[in-house]
Design a protein that fits this description.
The protein is an alpha/beta fold. The chain has 15 helices and 28 strands. The strands form 6 sheets. It has an 8-stranded parallel β-barrel, surrounded by 6 helices. A 6-stranded mixed beta sheet has the order 13-15-16-17-18-14. It has a 5-stranded antiparallel beta sheet with strand order 19-22-27-24-25, with no helix packed on it. Strand 1 and strand 2 form a beta hairpin. The longest helix has 22 residues.
């Protein structure tokens, strides 16, 4: 029997059996504070009616159900919630292994969330979670003890191939969400259900439709999405999961469920919202409807996304933002985006995903998404303290902007096996890696090529052996803070560039970052003179020099002797191109900045020109100031074609002593020309650099990678 058919039949059985188990277990339970809490297994009249209908339908298909039950195993059974245990937040500052600056006005119900979707697959792979006392403990109890009040769980429609092999990434089907949701509810945490409406990962790069929806029209897909949401949410609630929020889609900037047309996506969202509203009403539940977007560094795009929702009349409550500080810009920009959504569109905002690393080490032999070396965010190191501090700072910025709360993404995704072992069998069998080889049938262009282990283990809030890090407690310390003995958190790496032919100069003091950031200071450093003298600055090379701080701490300076490029934004990759001045003749500008790696010499962006209407005459130039006087060399790369014999193009440099040029001609696609001006005398610290083109209608090309080097005095 195919896995997807089996799972659908099994879900019907689970719905029926849960009705019987949960009704038998109704009653009061006692939390850790000694006060009785309502048992979330209590059902409404509407739930009982729904169960009666399920039972009736199930009786008509008794033979099929018998077959399913015979194939059922203990791991397919969702246990009832039972007694609910809760934990209270501190009522004042506490001593801890981490220092946390308090956020005095943060509310107790501020979402202190954790995405824990991979937990079951990690446990099935043999990994174990522990409590703070070093004893094995349900990870959800540890999260609740640490101040986490909301759990986020992704749901994929059918993350299995036709033989029942999981695609990986946690194999997060509905049954998995039910099991994890019950465990979260058992410890007093609300649950956010994140429907991807896909059989595997959904994000800006891919929004594949579920296999079962293949070939459907938008109307048919909309109906299927409504039915799927209604059925799935009902089963979660029947299982006793305390669902407080439902995401209809995951990072849907560029589409959803295989649809990219804005109107089609809005139709799907309306169906998802309608389903959530109706189920919530029938169960007497207050469930927020949420949408989720990313790439928030592009404010205009986010504004457009929100405007599309408004124009289409999508009924939702919360606008979710992915905000990874190492990818998505500054806290200030995140605040600006949040205030835009709140003020202009009147919606609540939450941070749907964020994270940070606590180490640069790898736990399972599969490379990490954030290395924790040269890709760190300014002001934070790859340490447990920095992990706590960056999350505290994000929560503080979010709270200041009126954001409802923050979800940490996959803080429980620890490695299985060890970094020096071949763990692929576990990743394949239990789905504990980010993708398995079986995913190739569904996502051949990404997961099918790069499948493997966990790329997030150094961003978990548990160590590689499953023990909670001190940083996990940041959630319960947000309001009153935590004190710790003053200690160095990290010392930022020292990077020094030295131009070929110049003297090497190292800093006399460097920054030292403490757990209490208010105590940060500079310390004098003594560099190893023998190592410094051994560096040959007459030629390019890479070196490391050891140094010692006042207290004896050893530091390292990474030295690059290189030809420094003094052109600013030389390859146009930075979106701020104000340093470049474009001039042209005629009414229409035949140039633009084209983001297309195939037409760029390096990177993804190049200065592009083409005109189908008229001849072209244009230039692009930059004035470089603050240079040390001396002799410089200028070069650029350009490619293109369809040039007439009288076309003219030249690289130029203008100084106080006059101008110099280097003519060149473009021939055909990808035949990169590299004109160079070798002797440019700079006497007042300033030079103007650029290219000029006079070319015929229909000609085309790109310009990229200006290089301005100082070559001698």
């Amino acid at each position: 029997m195919k896995k997807q058919v089996y799972r659908k039949l099994l879900a019907a059985c689970v719905s029926v059996s849960l009705g019987t188990v949960l009704l038998a277990g109704c009653g009061d339970s006692v939390g850790t504070t000694g006060t009785k809490t309502e048992d979330v297994s209590l059902t409404t009249e509407a739930q009982n009616e729904a169960r009666t209908a399920d039972v009736s339908e199930a009786q008509q298909e008794s033979e099929t159900q018998t077959e399913v039950q015979e194939n059922n195993t203990s791991e397919d059974v969702v246990e009832p919630v039972g007694e609910v245990t809760t934990f209270t937040l501190p009522d004042g500052p506490e001593m801890s292994d981490i220092f946390v600056q308090p956020i005095a006005d943060i509310a107790d119900d501020f979402i202190r969330g954790m995405d824990a979707s991979a937990v079951l697959s990690v446990e099935n792979s043999g990994a174990v979670y522990y409590g703070y006392d070093g004893k094995e403990q349900d990870v959800f109890e540890t999260l609740a003890q640490s101040g986490v009040n909301y759990i986020r769980l992704r749901v994929w429609n059918d993350p299995y191939d036709e033989n029942g092999n999981g695609y990986g990434g946690g194999n997060n089907d509905l049954t998995t969400a039910m099991k994890l949701g019950v465990r979260a509810t058992r410890y007093g945490m609300k649950v956010c259900i994140d429907f991807h409406y896909s059989d595997f990962w959904a994000d800006p790069k891919r929004q594949h439709a579920p296999k079962a929806w293949k070939g459907m029209t938008v109307d048919e897909k909309s109906d299927a999405l409504y039915d799927y949401t209604t059925e799935s949410l009902g089963k979660l609630l029947d299982a006793g999961v305390d669902v407080g929020m439902v995401q209809i889609g995951n990072e849907i900037n560029n589409g959803m469920s295989g649809e990219t047309d804005v109107d089609a996506v809005m139709q799907l969202l309306n169906s998802g919202s309608k389903a959530v509203r109706e189920v919530a009403e029938s169960y007497g539940k207050d469930i927020k409807v949420a949408v989720h977007y990313t790439n928030i560094e592009d404010n205009d795009q986010i504004d457009t996304m929100a405007a599309n929702l408004k124009d289409a009349g999508v009924d939702y409550d919360m606008f979710g933002l992915s905000f990874y500080p190492f990818w998505d810009g500054t806290n200030e920009n995140m605040q600006n985006v949040a205030k835009l959504i709140e003020d202009k569109y009147g919606k609540e905002v939450y941070i749907a995903e964020t994270s940070y690393c606590y180490t640069s080490e790898d736990g399972d032999g599969f490379s990490n998404s954030l290395k924790g070396t040269d890709d760190l965010t300014d002001g934070y190191g790859a340490t447990v303290q920095s992990q706590a501090t960056v999350i505290r700072d994000i929560c503080a910025a979010a709270n200041e902007a009126g954001v409802e709360g923050v979800f940490y993404w996959e803080g429980t995704w620890i490695p299985v096996g060890s970094a020096d072992a071949d763990n692929s069998a576990l990743w394949e069998k239990y789905g504990s890696g980010w993708a398995s080889s079986y995913s190739a049938e569904y996502d051949p262009d990404d997961a099918g090529l790069y499948y493997g282990g966990c790329s997030w283990d150094n961003q978990a809030m548990f160590d590689f052996t499953g023990h909670p890090l001190a940083s996990l407690n940041v959630f319960k310390y947000l309001k009153y803070g935590a004190t710790a003995p003053l200690a160095v958190d990290y010392i930022p790496d020292v990077y020094v560039s030295c131009n070929v032919g110049e003297d090497l100069v190292l800093p006399e003091s460097i920054d030292v970052v403490y757990n209490d950031r208010s105590q940060n200071k500079k310390q004098s450093v003594s560099w190893n003179e023998t190592q410094m003298k051994a560096i040959d600055t007459t030629k390019a090379g890479s070196y490391e020099i050891e140094g010692a701080l006042e207290d004896g701490t050893t530091v390292t300076a990474h030295v690059e002797v290189e030809m420094v490029n003094y052109a600013v934004n030389p390859g146009f990759e930075d979106k701020n191109r104000s340093m470049w001045k474009v001039s042209y003749e005629g009414e229409a500008d035949p140039t633009d900045y084209q983001v297309k790696a195939d037409d760029a010499h390096s990177g993804e962006t190049a200065f592009h020109f083409w005109s189908g209407d008229s001849d072209m005459e244009f230039s692009i130039e930059q004035e470089v100031t603050g240079l040390e006087n001396g002799t410089y060399q200028l070069s650029v790369f350009s490619q293109g074609g369809d040039m007439s014999s009288d076309a003219s193009m030249e690289l130029y440099a203008v100084t106080a002593d006059g101008g110099q040029t280097a003519p060149f001609m473009l021939t055909t696609y990808n035949d990169w020309q590299n004109p160079t001006i070798k002797e440019i005398k700079v006497t007042d610290g300033t030079v103007k650099i650029g290219v000029r083109f006079q070319c015929n209608v229909g000609s085309w090309g790109t310009v990229d990678d200006f290089t301005l080097n100082r070559i001698s005095d």
